[in-house]
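ping. complex inputs:
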Amino acid sequence: MIPKIPLADWVDTFVDFLTDKLEPFFDLISEGIGNFVDFLVFILTSIPPILLILIFAGIALWLTRWTNALFTGVGLWLIYNLDYWEATLDTLALVLTAVVISIIIGIPIGIWMSQSDRARNIILPVLDFMQTMPAFVYLIPAILFFGIGMVPGIIASVIFAMPPTIRLTNLGIRQVPEDLIEAANAFGSSTKQRLLKVQLPLATPTIMAGINQSVMLSLSMVVISSLVGAPGLGADVYRAVSQVKVGIGFEAGLAIVILAIVLDRLSQNIGKQKQN
Amino acid sequence: MSQAKIEVRNVTKVFGKSPQQGIKMLNEGLTKKQILEKSGMTVGVNKANFEIKAGEIFVIMGLSGSGKSTLVRMFNRLIDPTDGQVLIDGQDIVKMKPEQLREIRRTKLSMVFQRFALFPHRTVLSNTEYGLEIKGADKLERKQKAMEALELVGLKGYENSYPSELSGGMQQRVGLARALANNPDILLMDEAFSALDPLIRKDMQNELLELQEKMEKTIIFITHDLDEALRLGDRIALMKDGSIVQVGTPEEILTNPANDYVERFVEDVDLSKVLTASHVMKRPEKILLDRGPRVALQIMKDVGISSVYIVDKKQKLLGAVTAQDAADAVKNSKTLEEVMTHDVETIAPDTLIADMFERVANATLPLAVIDENHRLLGIIVRGAVLAALAGDEIQLNGNGVN
Ligand SMILES: Nc1ncnc2c1ncn2[C@@H]1O[C@H](COP(=O)(O)OP(=O)(O)OP(=O)(O)O)[C@@H](O)[C@H]1O
Ligand SMILES: [Mg+2]
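pong. complex structure:
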């Protein structure tokens, strides 16, 4: 019989090695992300809640229909009324940070994938792996590298939520009709000109759909993130579950759902505004 | 020295795993079909050799899959030839480095596409500006040249529309304007009018011919439609299975098909839309006005016809006289001038047969073919028209009356 392969030991060794050698690097990332989130939370909390609610409703009105604006206003007010306002802002900061990082890293990777079949063939299985691995598993190395709190929660969210942005950026660019690419080339466009003037503008709706999915996925990570100490609505849900408090669990869960719907409507319509 | 604008030398394209292998098989004399069966590779273009002169409309014609698009895409290297040379103004484009190639695409060659290929996120103006923008022209120059091009194709006033708001014909005008704004020497048009409905298509053909009179570009026009080829082409190249089968003027192709393939291609053509008055006209019997009715009568008797045309010393058409009127004049000692009819139906030599059927059928006298100076060139007799349409080559003139 073949003895059990010590896969777990290998992974442990590898992670130990990383923590050991790359500690300054992780510290730097941790600090950068931490500062960004703190800053975001600071801004959000320094705006009076009612004013912030009105701002959100106003954005919804500008981007979409008045029904969405109404829902945004009433929904956020309900959260405020139920006294989940600060937790919601923590969660919002977490989600926004995760999405911003997903965009900053994901779109360039998506572009790279779209330009090279080899890159695509390497990256696609990695994305599959990232999405099928249970999200819990990411928490372990996240704690090791980044400690406890908001930052490991964000890192785990990014890993889980970034793939759609990458995939749809690649897809959007590859879906640009062949004859438009031919036209761009026939007029002597360089690769960069073709990308900036033709491919990216035409891929924008698809890329926005990817970002929208990333938003929703990172929201779906908030409860899991609370396991590593990320504050916010997820922590409230987690506490309610562990203490079997049904009422509180429902309230916190409802706040997450409202936030999800608001963010979904907003992020769905950001790209479309221009065309009307 | 009249150097060719584009020289195509031995240009070959093989699609597939090992194109060089395909070249070898072609050299061994295998056909496109045999190569496909043996190796799974497709011969797109097989050793094309011809020259395109500056300022001509050169039509490439052939059935679907015969390699037209592949061939024309090798002129600007949207497709890289497997073998051979394409010389543009003496420079081999196949050997060019990417920057050189971009430069030549920006300055010398523009392309018009079958499905228009307009950028949907850009306005008509901004589509038209694309080539200039890529070249780095400044905003003012871009706008000015693009507006000129739009005006040329009759789209002034639409510059702020989006392509999706325009009809097919208008969209292709934008495609043409986009190509012209760059002021290239050479226009590549791949089935540029094939997606348009027949009436619009004919308008566009006429407009292209009019534009060409002003611009004198070198135009490579691809089509699978013989009528279109004959209307537009100064010369036509016929392709089959990737090979060039015949290159010649429309007339040469029609009257002297190189082989069965060309002949079959040409067979279906509606001759009435190709042949003109000058192809079917006969030598007119004519006399000078001062010769008198007796001479007129004599000529008619000699040749066995019932009317004769009257011209002045410069061959200008004055009218006609019938045998009956001439006899009348002799009896009553009148002059020709008194009995002739001035009202003779005339047509221009480049009138298509299709456009003169009705008049030929209704006219009492044969139609008189006259040039712009009103000089009598020939006459159209009903029988000759019918014979020509039936494909009787003996009835056809070269470029005028022999
Ligand atoms: N990228 C490609 N890969 C493989 N084979 C190709 C490719 N492009 C064209 N071919 C083949 O090359 C041959 C010539 O194609 P091409 O498109 O040049 O024909 P065409 O004369 O333009 O036809 P159509 O009138 O349908 O546009 C065809 O047999 C086609 O299947
Ligand atoms: Mg084609």
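The first helix of chain B runs from residue 19 to 27.
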